Structures are given as structure tokens and as C-alpha cells.
């Protein structure tokens, strides 16, 4: 064994007849070397399209065939993502942009427009909620406009006003504080309202306000029953 540690092998190494003795590798060193080798493997699936372009000179013909397949796949994924996430924010528009941005918006895109006045607290609350919903539902177009720039002499009682458009048609509308959900409107409640008119695809399973409504209905019913009972008792007393 040329690696055997004998006096004769040492002499042969001194004369260059045997190669230098291979030093045993430490396990940690071997692991480091293995990881380095793995890192040198061209990680197609970890590269962006830009990185693939920059690294083209380093690839051989077989690599390039694999890359073309992967590049096409990534390109299609990127296009699908861009198509889906084309909005993602609540944008301010002016009245003269209304037709282009809302009525004549892209085909099959839902547009939610909020007409508001910053002097009305409920309008500010709705804008806060819509900003968050715009991030959650980037495939839906969210815009807001100061009402005076769109409609002159619009009454404060009609604010906030939310319109939902699709293909130039109004699919839903919420006019005034009550229709928009009340001064204590929660984010999930507005999300549910917009989902009901088809503006967004919510993951909420039921109306967040349902529990509150049920309690109110139950309370009204119980009060009504109590009044009926009292009325009946009073009638019986009068009969006596």
C-alpha cells in the first residue's frame, strides 16, 4: 500500500518514486468540501430570469437546453403573477380620470371606487380599510376620489359612497354611513360587503356581522314577546 507508513515507502517518496502520502481528511473538512462542490452545481431553480441571463456563458450545451425549458416555465409564472397582481394599492384619482380609470377600465377587472371627503371621519375609516384590502386583493382595482372633483354639490349624507364597476357597469353600490356598514365598520365587514357584490374573492366563511345581527334580532324578538305577554295579562286583568 503506497499510503502505508513504512520506512521503505518513506525512502521511495524521497526519491519521487511514490507520490506524497495522502493525509486523511477530517470529517468536517470533507463535509465542507462536499458542500462547496454542491454549491458549484448550477442551481437553475434558484435563479431569477436576470441571473440566468448573466450566467449563460458558464453553461454548456446540455445546461442550456435545461435552462431554456426552465426559463420558459419561469417566464410564464412571472406573466401569470404580473397579470394577477397588477394593482395592490388604493390610488387617488381625479374627476377627469373617472371614465378612463373606472368606467373604461380593463375588461373583466373589478373596480372599487370610493367617493369621499376628508372632513368626514367615516370616509377616512373606509380609506384605511380599502388600503389594506387593496394589498390583500391585488387583482381588483381600488381607487378613491374627492367627491367634489367628480360630482358637484354631492350631499354629505350620501358619504361615504362606494361603487363597484365591472366592464363599465355598476355591480354594487353603498351610499351613506348605514349602507357602508356604520361608524364602527370593521375591516372584515367591508371585505364581506365587497365580496357579496363580486368585487373580490374572500376567504371569509360567513358574514362577520352575522353574530351581532342575530343577537339584535333575538333581543327584539324577546322584547316583542315580553310586550305581548304584558299586553295579554293587562287584557285579562281588565276582563276581570
Automatic annotation (TrEMBL):
Cited Gene3D superfamilies: Glutaredoxin
Pfam families: Phosducin
Residue span, Phosducin domain: 39-199
CDD domains per the UniProt record, alphabetical: Phd_like_VIAF
GO CC terms: cytoplasm
Coiled-coil parts of chain: none
GO biological process terms, semicolon-separated: protein folding
Family statement drawn from the similarity comment of this UniProt entry: Belongs to the phosducin family.
Protein name (database record): PDCL2 protein
Source organism of this protein record: Crocuta crocuta (Spotted hyena)
Amino acid at each position: 500500500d503506497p499510503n502505508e507508513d513504512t520506512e521503505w515507502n518513506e525512502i521511495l517518496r524521497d526519491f519521487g518514486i511514490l507520490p506524497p502520502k495522502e493525509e486523511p481528511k477530517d470529517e468536517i473538512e470533507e463535509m465542507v468540501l462536499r458542500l462547496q462542490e454542491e454549491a458549484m452545481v448550477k442551481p437553475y431553480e434558484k435563479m431569477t430570469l436576470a441571473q440566468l441571463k448573466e450566467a449563460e456563458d458558464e453553461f454548456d450545451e446540455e445546461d442550456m437546453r435545461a435552462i431554456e425549458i426552465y426559463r420558459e416555465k419561469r417566464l410564464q409564472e412571472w406573466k401569470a403573477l404580473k397579470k394577477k397582481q397588477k394593482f395592490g394599492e388604493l390610488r387617488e384619482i381625479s374627476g377627469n380620470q373617472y371614465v378612463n380609470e373606472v368606467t373604461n377600465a380593463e375588461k373583466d377587472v373589478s373596480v372599487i371606487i370610493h367617493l369621499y371627503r376628508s372632513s368626514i371621519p367615516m370616509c377616512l375609516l373606509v380609506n384605511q380599510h380599502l388600503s389594506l384590502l387593496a394589498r390583500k386583493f391585488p387583482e381588483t382595482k381600488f381607487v378613491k376620489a374627492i367627491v367634489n372633483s367628480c360630482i358637484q354639490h354631492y350631499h354629505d349624507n350620501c358619504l361615504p359612497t362606494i361603487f363597484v364597476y365591472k366592464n363599465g357597469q355598476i355591480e354594487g353600490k353603498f351610499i351613506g354611513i348605514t349602507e357602508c356598514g356604520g361608524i364602527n365598520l370593521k375591516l372584515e365587514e367591508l371585505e364581506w360587503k365587497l365580496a357579496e357584490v363580486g368585487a373580490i374573492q374572500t376567504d371569509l366563511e360567513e358574514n362577520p356581522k352575522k353574530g351581532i345581527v342575530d343577537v339584535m334580532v333575538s333581543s327584539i324578538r324577546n322584547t316583542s314577546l315580553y310586550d305581548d305577554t304584558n299586553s295579554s295579562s293587562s287584557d285579562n286583568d281588565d276582563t276581570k
